[in-house]
Specification:
Blueprint (H helix, E strand, L loop, with lengths): L1 E4 L3 H11 L5 H19 L5 E7 L4 E7 L3 E7 L7 H6 L3 E3 L1 E6 L6 E7 L7 E5 L2 E2 L3 H12 L6 E7 L1 H10 L4 E7 L2 E2 L5 E2 L5 H6 L3
Helix pairs in contact: 1-2
This protein binds 1-O-pyrophosphono-5-O-phosphono-alpha-D-ribofuranose and uracil.
Length: about 210
């Protein structure tokens, strides 16, 4: 449906650390956890709730519970590293996995794993930190739709205009929540200025 670029100062502060080349993997993981918590908060601000009554130690009072059953769907490998903050935030959440890998030469993404639960009536939260050409996200949303998912919300850390356009052209109903909309892609389809290879920086691989 649309692109939401966070303006929250804490998001911008975390992003500065994630971008900086000198940030070590252990620091990178902490910053990733923080920024995903904040983006997930923003991405779910419009979930509907139902009224309930609870008893505090002192009195009965009106309260509210989230109506939605969420399904967090990390795109392996980098998406796996941003799953745990989402699991900590929500109580009614299950997990589906999609494995996609870009060919280093062509930048085309190939599906190597797909384990999604039935998504009918649930709210899919697609987790992939980098939206570059959009090839991975387009295929991920196709798999989500094939499993009955509607109204996907994608959480990413950095998006390129090319990826946003590709995703919204193929799947205009998707909502994208990101910390930054960057300038574009380089000749290797890496995001500029970006933050490099998110998976490598998160997992400490070369
Ligand atoms: C990265 C990233 C996305 C994809 C984005 O994964 O995590 O999945 O690239 O690029 P795209 O928009 O051009 O498809 P990568 O293929 O590097 O695999 P990894 O997560 O295993 O490092
Ligand atoms: N994947 C990444 O990890 N970084 C990019 O800039 C593009 C794809």
């Amino acid at each position: 449906m649309s692109l939401h670029v966070s303006r929250h100062p804490l998001v911008m502060d975390c992003l500065a650390g994630l971008r900086a080349v000198e940030t070590r993997s252990d620091e990178f993981r902490g910053l990733a956890r923080k920024v995903i918590t904040l983006l997930a908060y923003e991405a779910t601000a419009d979930l509907t709730t139902s009224p309930i009554t609870v008893r505090t130690p002192l009195a009965e009072t009106a309260a509210a519970r989230i109506d939605h059953e969420l399904v967090a769907i990390p795109v392996l490998r980098a998406g796996l590293g941003i799953l745990s903050p989402v699991l900590e935030l929500f109580s009614r959440v299950s997990v589906g996995y999609i494995g996609l890998e870009r060919d280093e030469k062509t930048a085309l993404a190939r599906i190597y794993y797909n384990k999604l639960p039935s998504l009918g009536g649930k709210t899919p939260l697609l987790l992939d930190p980098m939206l570059a050409t959009g090839g991975s996200a387009v295929q991920a949303v196709e798999l989500i739709k094939a499993a009955g998912g509607e109204g996907t919300r994608m959480i990413c850390v950095v998006a390129a205009p090319e990826g946003v356009q590709a995703l919204l052209r193929q799947h205009p109903e998707v909502d994208i929540y990101t910390a930054a909309l960057d300038e574009g892609l380089n000749d290797k389809a890496f995001i500029l200025p970006g933050l490099g290879d998110f998976g490598d920086r998160l997992f400490g691989t070369p």
